[in-house]
């Protein structure tokens, strides 16, 4: 069964600290993996898309990694800011639709 | 990227009534989708809105409950019919990339937060 699992379910960190979110997937065949940020009351916004051949991809303070062999991805946030407080969703396309993870709810506290 | 707007942004409705949600895109797009996000849950695809033909519904969703219109390449509506409290969710419109494969990129609208009393 095609699934995307994320951990932790929620996370609280202090402003300025780093954190890493995890995503494991069992979707096959695999073409790409996406990380989205969803602010409260808003729609998801794409942070990065990683294809099979990419190991690391950065978007500002966000760095995503992909290990296609172990079917794992991580999203590392550096020097967190209060505005990073959001839900982070890992998404992997299946044959005809997107498979969404349940998300990691990140709270950055001052 | 595509800019997507939805109306209304939120609503509180009575059980048994219906609500129509509008989705407007700033450019012509081939693929349009409707998702539901229940409280504390991730997104679930309701249907693909096809221009000029009936929408394609996912398992567990039916046209009588969620009728969809797609009159052109920039606009779609989703109606939540005969609502019950279990329909309380965020409903999101999404569009696919117009270049390359349909799932190269998807953009999401801001969502419509529906509460059914």
Which features would summarize this protein structure in a list?
heterodimer, A: 110 residues, mainly beta, six-stranded mixed beta sheet, five-stranded antiparallel beta sheet, B: 117 residues, four-stranded antiparallel beta sheet, 0% helix, 49% strand, globular
Describe this structure in words.
The complex is a heterodimer of chains A (110) and B (117). Chain A has no helices and eleven strands. Chain A has strands at 4-7, 10-14, 19-25, 32-38, 45-51, 56-59, 62-67, 72-77, 86-93, 98-100, 104-109. Chain A starts with a strand and ends with a strand. Chain B starts with a strand and ends with a strand. Chain B has 117 residues and is an all-beta fold. The chains are: A mainly beta (110), B mainly beta (117).
Shape of chain B: globular
The strand count of chain A comes to: 11
Query: Biggest interface and its residues per chain?
Result: A-B, 18 and 19 residues
Low-confidence runs of chain B (pLDDT<50, min 5 residues)? none
Tally the beta strands of chain B.
Answer: 11
Estimate what percentage of residues of chain A fall within beta strands: over 45%
**Straight-line distance between termini of chain B:** 36 Å
The assigned structural class of chain A equals: mainly beta
User: Count the helices of chain B. How many?
Assistant: 0
Helix content of chain B: under 10%
């Amino acid at each position: 069964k095609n699934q995307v699992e994320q951990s932790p379910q929620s996370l609280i960190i202090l402003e300025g600290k780093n954190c890493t979110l995890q995503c494991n997937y069992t979707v096959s065949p695999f073409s790409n993996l996406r990380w989205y940020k969803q602010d409260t009351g808003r729609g998801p916004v794409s942070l990065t898309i990683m294809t099979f051949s990419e190991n690391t991809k950065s978007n500002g303070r966000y760095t995503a990694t992909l290990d296609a062999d172990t079917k794992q991805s991580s999203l590392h946030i550096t020097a967190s800011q209060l505005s990073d407080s959001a839900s982070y969703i890992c998404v992997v396309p299946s044959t005809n639709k997107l498979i969404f993870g349940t998300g990691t709810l990140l709270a950055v506290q001052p | 990227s595509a800019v997507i707007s939805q109306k209304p942004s939120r609503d509180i409705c009575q059980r048994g009534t219906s609500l129509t949600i509008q989705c407007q895109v700033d450019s012509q797009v081939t693929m349009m989708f409707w998702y539901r996000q229940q409280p504390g849950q991730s997104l679930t695809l309701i249907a693909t809105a096809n221009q000029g033909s009936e929408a394609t519904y996912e398992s567990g969703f039916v046209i009588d409950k969620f009728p969809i219109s797609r009159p052109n390449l920039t606009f779609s509506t989703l109606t939540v019919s005969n609502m019950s409290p279990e329909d309380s969710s965020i409903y999101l419109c999404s569009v696919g990339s117009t270049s390359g494969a349909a799932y190269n990129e998807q953009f999401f609208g801001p969502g419509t937060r529906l509460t059914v009393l």
